[in-house]
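Long-time lurker, first post.

We've been arguing in lab meeting about whether pyridoxal-5'-phosphate would sit comfortably in this protein at all. Half the group thinks yes, half thinks no, and nobody has a model to point at. So I'm putting the question to the forum: if I give you the sequence and the SMILES, can you give me back a predicted structure of the complex? Inputs are below. Any interpretation is welcome too.
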Amino acid sequence: MANDSTHRIVTGLRSWIATAPPGAQLPSNRQLTAEYGASPVTVQKAMRALTALGMIESRPGVGTFVRSVRTAGPVDYGWQTAALGSPHARIPTLSTAQRTAAPDAIGLHSGYPDRELLPERLVRAAIARAARTDAAITRSPATGLPELQSWFATELANVAPVGVTPATARDVLILSGSQSGLSSIFRAIVGPGQPLLIESPTYWGAILAAAQADVTLVPIPSGPDGPDPDEVARAFDDTGARAFYAQPTYANPTGAQWSAERGLAVLDIVRARGAFLIEDDWAHDLAIDTDPHPIAAHDHDGHVIYLRSLTKSVSPSLRVAALIARGPARDRILADRGAESMYVSGLLQAAALDVVTQPAWATHLRGLRQQLRARRDLLIDSIREHVPEAHLDRTPAGGLNLWLRLPDDTDLERLARACEARGVIIAPGTEWFPAEASGPYIRLNYSGPSPDRFPDAARTIGTALRTHT
Ligand SMILES: Cc1ncc(COP(=O)(O)O)c(C=O)c1O
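Top reply:
Settle the argument with this. Predicted structure of the protein with pyridoxal-5'-phosphate, as tokens:
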């Protein structure tokens, strides 16, 4: 909640309501103003929040009352079991990375950066400006705002080598986050029952999207330097697959960045087999020690389908990303987008475009590099000191995560529960493997709140590891 006083009143009244009988009358706004030392506007805001939560109702001229919740008994949804049958994909569960942690916990699990790493002032000003444009009340074209399409295309064209015809603005499809792009690509380009090569470990959301699209995953081992091109070639030849989903830059979870040579070798393999490389450049703006070199910049004939997201660098709330695809592949994906969501809110697109075209954006990215480096190094130092059993293959040159190998006999679920009981949330690595995990790994994200508590968190993990596994 934006306003701390509002939050304080809501929290106080929630505990009061929890013990009050339905229909009990709340103190008047004037009493609350005095009790909490808050302004009448703040009290009204808190009352609106509680009304929206369905906890209170106001009767004009009479007062505000605890809302009675009518339940006639527990509801039986058993009929749905027969109607739905067994699921065709894995039973949906919330990934650890998506969990909301208790406010006082140290969260090392989240996938999105803390607000202190975001260009908050730029974002707020951009939203206010966008609200005053026609984007606030008109429909965006299905492919996206032309200026934003151009911006994404230019970003890629700027790093294309001489001799490569770069993708154009027309090849860019704006998405509300790259996650939905993964689903569209898997449905429109791979198809149900068809094989898809995928690094192992890889992004859990890609594994989930593939499962929902009924795509058959073909895992390829991928270490700190990325996958071995010979393995990629062999997997294509063995399976007849026509697509490979990969993260060549600051992979989630390993942090791996492929060398330029490896990237071009994989592109050659893909090209020779008439296949697609689905390049997920999720961490393009999250560089620390190196610069990103998208393989898509080397593609001149539509073999690379490229995803780039702004949700982690601009704001998780401005869910804007781009998918760049060329030729009939672009048209098939666009048709899938039409069926799924038609178009992305022009307001969000206008705000995102405003942020990335401000001179202050480049300054923000430079500062972000420094902040990520400091956080990454602090977490590494803390782990080295307090969890010497943990092994880090390679310091990630970008991205948001440390991928740590723990001793073979580690019980990851027990460890995660023991850490959580002591107020530290970690992500067991199991979710990042498309098949069996190759060992007990955990993923620790260094972009969450309170980096000053990293040493405490590491101490907690070390203690839990030694007493619970
Ligand atoms: C590798 C990777 N791809 C895609 C996404 C999806 O991001 P978004 O939908 O916010 O653009 C994520 C989010 O964590 C990710 O880690």
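For your lab meeting: The pocket of pyridoxal-5'-phosphate is lined by residues 111, 177-179, 203, 205, 247, 252, 280, 282, 309, 311, 321 (CB under 6 Å). The longest strand covers residues 216-223. Whichever side wins, do check it experimentally.
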